[in-house]
Amino acid sequence: MTLSEKDTLYNWHPYTQHKTAFTHPVIIKGEGALLWDENEKEYIDAIASWWVNPFGHSNRFMADAIYKQLTTLEHVLFGGFTHKKAIALSEKLAKILPSNQKKFFYSDNGSTAVEVAIKVALQYFHNKGEKKTKIIAFENAFHGDTFGAMAASGISFFTEAFQGSLLEVVRIPVPTKGNEENSLKTFEDLLKTNEYAAFLFEPLVQGAAGMVMYAPEVLDQLIHVAKENNVFTIADEVMTGFGKTGKNFACDYLQEQPDMMCLSKALTGGTIPMAVTSFTNEIYDAFYDDDTSKALFHGHTFTANPTGCAAALAAIELLESSEMQTNIQEVNKQHLAFQKQIETHPKVKTTRVLGVIFALEIHVDSQQDYYGALRNKLYSFFIENGVILRPVGNVIYILPPYVISKKHLDKIYTTIEKALAII
Question: Where does pyridoxal 5'-phosphate bind (predicted)?
Fold first, then answer.
């Protein structure tokens, strides 16, 4: 029995209808921006393995940091104990995040980071004796698959089976160019009811919606209005964080500062599952009380895992290096050059670039399903040609490791051009 056959026999993959799915390539090794399967076929990882590997696969600096930690302290419970790496990581995050972020809660992944933020927002007002039970989010948002994060997500394809089992979330239009006033007015009208605990958003880029982008100026306005109305703002930087937008965090483009931030994915450089939710002191203080019931009763077995913290510290060191900052700028320049070249293509409707993120929307006659025929045709074409890209409906996006070479980026661009010729 081959490895692929064994995989089919045993494994249930995410976001997969196995009856109609293609056979999954068996990846056996990776280096930099490349992966190889069991047949030694080479793939360019053009999406950094779901946006988590900015420094490439099998990064020696990351591996050495993890090995060193494993030989010292691999794990210790964080309930009732602490350790040096968690303290060092929190101290580092306090320096690189917006200046109002002072307290850090560790969990396992992007969904749990958002889940913690939602629970904290709701319990904050409960602890204060106020009734605020609703959340505001953007249309077509994606914040994760746990129940609170799923409720705040607007992609019904993922959530329709659970309607009626979710907390109440009201969605406002995304403030894309030309839609800013509509979004802001809808938001202001909702806040008049004083029912909302928090406004949750993906800052500047909606990843799973197809890299939909909007301006920092309008997000500043929304955050300002939220603060005026005593509504917490939660920036979901799970995708955008750690350099993707050209700055360390998308919130670095803002004048206003969110009350909470959610981090994961590239936090540990693609090595170990880990997440952080950060808070202002004002929020933390609402849980600091002689009354035990006002504490945040939430936790994970691997909270602040020392090995994960060591990986995160190494990842941040790499991110801050001059070499990596130069790489980010070079990827952005190449994206902009490709955008200029491809934006007049007759099959291209729109293009957009921010940092290392490139997105191209294809002209189509009708609405395309998230996992529809066009998407599946494109996905198969890319895999056959040794490029890992996962289109979203009629949107092709690139979000590569920062260490990718010009040659490999050029192959990605060329493969996209070839794909446009077959549709």
Answer: 110-111, 236, 300-301
